[in-house]
Amino acid sequence: MRKINFITFFITVHSILIFLQVHKHTLFIKNNYKQQEYEKQRAALTEKKEILTQELHALKDRETIKQFAYNTLKMRPYTLHNIIKLPSQQHDTHL
């Protein structure tokens, strides 16, 4: 009887240890998958940051701004004959 209890206890403990080992391995694989996913996101964000930084530097360039204004916005430089003087409005303070 005592031998049967020991064998039962031994098998139960080893079954639990096997279960815990499988569980630990599953968590390890799960965490590796998440880490790989985060590394891909980080690489994508780093690439996007580089692209946006390059665009920012391009936008700060005067010549690029001028070309954007001329080509995209169809803006032209003002000359004196383009400026219209509006009549000034005088306020009557003496009533």
Number of helices: 2
**E-strand count:** 0
Order of helices and strands: HH
The global form is rod-shaped
Q: What is the percent of helical residues?
A: over 70%
Q: Poorly predicted ranges (pLDDT <50, ≥5 residues)?
A: none
| Average pLDDT number | 86
The main β sheet shows up as: none
Structural class: mainly alpha
Radius of gyration, in angstroms, nearest whole number: 38 Å
Distance between the first and last residues' Cα = 119 Å
Tally of domains: 1
In short, what is this structure?
With 95 residues, the protein is mostly helical. The protein has two helices and no strands.
Provide a descriptive summary of the structure in words:
This protein is mainly alpha-helical. It has one domain. Helix content is 73%, strand content 0%. It has 2 helices and no strands. It has helices spanning 2-60, 62-71. The longest helix is centred in the N-terminal third of the chain and has 59 residues, at 2-60. The mean pLDDT is 86.
